[in-house]
């Protein structure tokens, strides 16, 4: 597998505000501790897009992990949106559809997509609203999410569920708008081949990094300096200077960037046996799930 000189983790957010508190960006280089990149007053999703395009322009050898799902389930129903004749046929067209239907929404929000009369049928919305095609229980899962659960590597939630503190649907959908607007400027694994140089984006799940750093299952979040030190020490990584605050968005990003640096050279992570070419194009995969 190719080498990278830097590693970054982006903890993402689906909040409707311009500058959500939930966005955190951490980066680590060949030496030293990971560091938070903290623009004032806070990151916006547009800021992150500009930051990515800057790396595309300089062709820096950086591996960038996004904590979001990069597609929706397809293979369980052989469609992203059954009964919708405009349902896309692969992930990149899904990104294009979501971004197009949300074009008038500010800050990469997806309000217009979620109220579309066909799209809305598939989601569990807030205030007790449930689409008539939302699958009961926790919602539909991608192949990688079912595999994570079967092998007990993680316990991902369905992107079709938009309710509750653990929901990941809104952040993933806003992330898909960003991926579409990158317009191929940075290759995204496994949808694109990994180039010999330059930046690459992968989907990550910060809980996988936290477990590798010694956090117990079900209590993976770190919210103080002592916990961050324990986790980074487990990953053979120095601890950064005192942070302004020890929220789990910041610590998730720092720990995951350090984990990516330690793990990215393992060929098995880039070639999981359950990942087929068709899964790669329609649903993607979470880096670190083998």
Q: Ends: how far apart? A: 16 Å
What is the N-to-C succession of helices and strands?
EEEHEHHHHEHHHHH
Tell the overall outline: globular
User: What is the spatial order of strands in the main beta sheet?
Assistant: 3-2-1-4-5
Percent of sequence in beta strands: 5-15%
Most strands sheet = 5 strands, mixed
Give start-end ranges of low-pLDDT stretches: none
**Secondary-structure content class:** alpha/beta
Number of strands: 5
Classify the oligomer: single chain
Mean pLDDT figure: 95
Helical segment count: 10
- In helices, the fraction of residues equals 25-40%
- Indicate the radius of gyration in whole angstroms: 18 Å
Short structural summary:
This protein has ten helices and five strands; from the N terminus they run E-E-E-H-E-H-H-H-H-E-H-H-H-H-H. By secondary structure, the protein is α/β, with parallel strands linked by helices.
Note down, in words, how this protein is organized.
With 290 residues, the protein is of the alpha/beta class. The protein has a domain at 6-70 and 184-270. Helices cover 33% and strands 8% of the residues. It contains 10 helices and 5 strands, in the order E-E-E-H-E-H-H-H-H-E-H-H-H-H-H. Strands 3-2-1-4-5 form a 5-stranded mixed β-sheet. Strand 2 and strand 3 form a beta hairpin. Helix 2 crosses helix 5 and helix 6 (206-212) crosses helix 8 (248-263). The longest helix has 16 residues, at 248-263. The relative contact order is 0.20. The model has no long low-confidence stretch (mean pLDDT 95).
């Amino acid at each position: 597998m190719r080498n990278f000189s830097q590693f970054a983790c982006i903890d993402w957010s689906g909040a409707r505000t311009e500058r959500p508190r939930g966005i955190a960006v951490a980066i680590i280089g060949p030496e030293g501790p990971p560091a938070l990149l903290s623009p004032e007053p806070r990151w916006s999703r547009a800021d992150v897009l500009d930051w990515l395009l800057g790396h595309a322009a300089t062709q820096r050898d950086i591996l960038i992990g996004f904590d979001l799902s990069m597609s929706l389930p397809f293979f369980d129903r052989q469609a992203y949106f059954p009964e919708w004749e405009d349902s896309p046929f692969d992930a990149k067209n899904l990104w294009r559809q979501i971004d197009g239907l949300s074009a008038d929404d500010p800050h990469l929000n997806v309000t217009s997509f979620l109220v579309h009369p066909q799209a809305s049928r598939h989601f569990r919305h807030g205030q007790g609203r449930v689409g008539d095609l939302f699958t009961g229980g926790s919602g539909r899962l991608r192949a990688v999410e079912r595999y994570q659960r079967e092998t007990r590597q993680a316990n991902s939630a369905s992107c079709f569920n938009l309710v509750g503190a653990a929901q990941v649907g809104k952040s993933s959908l806003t992330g898909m708008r960003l991926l579409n607007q990158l317009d191929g400027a940075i290759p995204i694994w496994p949808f694109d081949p990994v180039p010999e140089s330059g930046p690459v984006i992968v989907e990550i799940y910060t809980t996988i990094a936290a477990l590798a750093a010694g956090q117990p299952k079900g209590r993976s979040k770190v919210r103080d300096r002592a916990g961050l030190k324990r986790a980074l020490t487990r990953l053979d990584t120095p601890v950064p200077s005192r942070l302004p605050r020890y929220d789990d968005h910041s610590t998730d990003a720092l720990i995951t960037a350090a984990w990516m640096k330690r793990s990215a050279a393992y060929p098995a992570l880039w070639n999981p046996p359950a990942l087929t070419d068709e899964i790669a194009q329609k649903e993607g995969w979470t880096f670190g799930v083998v």
